[in-house]
Amino acid sequence: MSSTIEKALQRRREAMAAEKAKNQSADSAEQQAAPQAPAAKRSHVPAARPQGPTSQLEPFNIDLDRLERNGHVSLSGVRKGINEEYREIKRKLLANAFGPLSSTIKNSNIIMVTSGRPSEGKTFTATNLALSIASEQDKTVLLVDADVLKPNVLNTFGVERRSGLMEYLTGEVNDIADVLYPTNIDKLKIIPAGKTHHLSTELLASQKMHETVDEFANRYPDRIVIIDTPPLIGITESAILANFAGQAVVVTEEGRSKLSDIRLSVERLNPDMAIGFVVNKVVNKDANDPGYYGYYYGQEQETANGA
Ligand SMILES: Nc1ncnc2c1ncn2[C@@H]1O[C@H](COP(=O)(O)OP(=O)(O)OP(=O)(O)O)[C@@H](O)[C@H]1O
Ligand SMILES: [Mg+2]
C-alpha cells in the first residue's frame, strides 16, 4: 500500500466522524427546508414514469431494492454510510463541473471513471455516482457504458441488454437518441455499451466518439455525463478517451492497487483534466457500522491549467 494512499486514508478516517456529523445536520436542515414532511421525503422512491416528450424508448426498470441489497447507494431515503461517502465525492465533481473552476476545464461536465487494472470497482463507482447525482434536485445524469470489452452497467442495474454505443459508432443506429434510454429514475438516462465489435476499443478512440462526447458537453451543459471506461493500463484507447473528458475519477482498491500502477494511470490521463481518486473497498473499523466499504476522494492539487 502506498504511503500516499495511506495518508489519504488516514486523513479520511479522521475526517469521517466530523463529516458524518456535518452531513446529518445538513440533511436535517434540508428536510426542514423542504416543502414535504420529513417522513414523506425519507420514504420517497423516484417515480417510475415516462421520461418526457422527447424519448420514445421503453425506460429501463432498475431494481432499486436489489441495488440497495448489493451495497449500492440507496434512493429509498434509508440512511446509509455509502450515501454519505458518495455525497461527498459528488459535491467535488459537481463543483468542478459547474463551479467557478468549470470555465478552466474543457468539457467539465464529462466525467470518466477509470482505474489502472481490472476489477478495482469502476462500474460500482460509476453506477453509484450516477445514482447519487440523479438524486439531486436539479441535476440530470447520463451514464455511458464505454467499457466495451467488459460492459457491466446493465448487469449491475439488473436490466436486460439492449443496443448501445457500439451500434451507434458502427453506424448501425443513426441517431444517438435511439440508444439513449430513460429509466425509472427520473433524472437518470443510460447509453449501454451494446454488442462487442472486433474494433470495439478502436471505435472508442474514434473521431465520431470524440464528436459525440463534445456534443454531450455542449448540448446538455447542465447534465453530468459519467463514462464507465476500460482500465487505463494495457488498453491504449482508454487514455484517448481522457482527451474527451474534463474530469477523471481514478478508482483504486485498498490494499491491492500498486502505487506504480496509480502513477502510470495518471500519466496516461490528460494533464489538463481534473483528476480525483476514490479508494474503494475500504473496510471501516467503526464498531457502529461494521464492514461496509468506505471511500476517500482526494483531488490532485495540480488540476486545471496544469498548474
Ligand atoms: N465498494 C464495494 N462494495 C461492495 N462490492 C464492491 C465494491 N466495489 C466493487 N465491488 C464488487 O467487486 C466486483 C468488481 O467491481 P466492478 O465490476 O465495479 O469493477 P470494475 O473495475 O468495473 O471491473 P472491470 O475491470 O471488470 O470492469 C463487483 O462484483 C462489484 O460489485
Ligand atoms: Mg466494470
TrEMBL record:
It catalyses: L-tyrosyl-[protein] + ATP = O-phospho-L-tyrosyl-[protein] + ADP + H(+). Residues 24-40 have a biased composition (Low complexity). Belongs to the CpsD/CapB family. It comes from Salinimonas profundi. The keyword Isomerase does not apply. Keywords: ATP-binding, Kinase, Nucleotide-binding, Transferase, Tyrosine-protein kinase. One of its GO terms (molecular function) is non-membrane spanning protein tyrosine kinase activity. Residues 1-58 are annotated as: Disordered. This is non-specific protein-tyrosine kinase. Its EC number is 2.7.10.2. Coiled coil: none annotated. Residues 8-22 have a biased composition (Basic and acidic residues). The keyword Glycoprotein does not apply. It is an enzyme of class 2 (transferase). It comes from the Bacteria. Residues 110-243 form the AAA domain.
